[in-house]
Amino acid sequence: MRGAPPRAFDHAVRSEDTSRRADATAPPTPPQPATADRAARRAVTVFPLLVLAAGAAGLATPGTFSGWAPNVPYLLGTIMFCMGLTMTTQDFSGVVKRPWAVALGLVAHYVIMPGLGWLIAHALGLSPQLAAGVILVGCAPSGTASNVVTYLARGDVALSVSVATVSTVLAPLVTPPLTLLLAGEYLPVDAGSMVTDILKTVLLPVVGGVVVRLLAGRYLARVLGLLPWLSAATIAVIVAVVVAASADAIKSAAGLVLLAVVLHNGLGLALGYAAGRAARLGEPAGRAMAFEVGMQNSGLAASLASAHFSPLAALPAAVFSVWHNISGALVAAWMSHRSRRAEG
Question: What is the domain extent for residue 69?
Fold first, then answer.
């Protein structure tokens, strides 16, 4: 739900991408190394299939996952700890080098997606539970799948990683008040409790992972490659739990939820790209902006929805987790093909 296999893979990708110029007018990226490209495509392909299978299992045998809901925050914490283990000073140095581009990405992310969530909930006349769930997805930070997909799209990976990192760090300060502002008309929102939950399940595990990486980084090299798949498996379990808890409601609301998710994600991708191009950041940065805006930390959204609203409110996040990886991979393939054709 946080996206495709997370940060450990992102750093493998970026290690092959060090020749990229950091300025906003950087030319299109040269062809990516075949090994990293194949690994990226495999990760982005396998992950949605794994999550889809987990959702089907939760729908077919909901009793298997009954009673697992209290474990969702701990599962999300595991994912975020894995993310922290793969972070280095590079993730933060990019913010210092390009503050304007990163700031624009953050503003676009936390304005476009929450606003779209609210508009779509109103336009489709969603029930209070589903409306709150869609809005909460929009208020979540960026997902690390965006980094991998940006790479596949031949976009600005450094900018993508910087925006994703800072949006995650700022989530405790931004996500709860945005949710209160936009979803408060549908359901009561305890923003203070939500801040505490995000600190415990997102920020503290990430910081813990960073500290462990700093203290024992040389011992982690052999296991970094396993972290994306550990995260993917954990995300799949969260999806199964969320879907199982709403199995009865899915049969009547699945079509409407899918429509809301497709609109939310698709418009987010388009408007994110438009924001980057309007700011004249360059084509690679525009592609990065598309994915940083349109792809969300749906794992966090599902966890918060389950804890603060209801299992039904977590359903949009579960569907978003599957869909945004499929759409992201397709859009990235199209962008990459267009880039290669332009290079002749």
Answer: 7-15+31-339
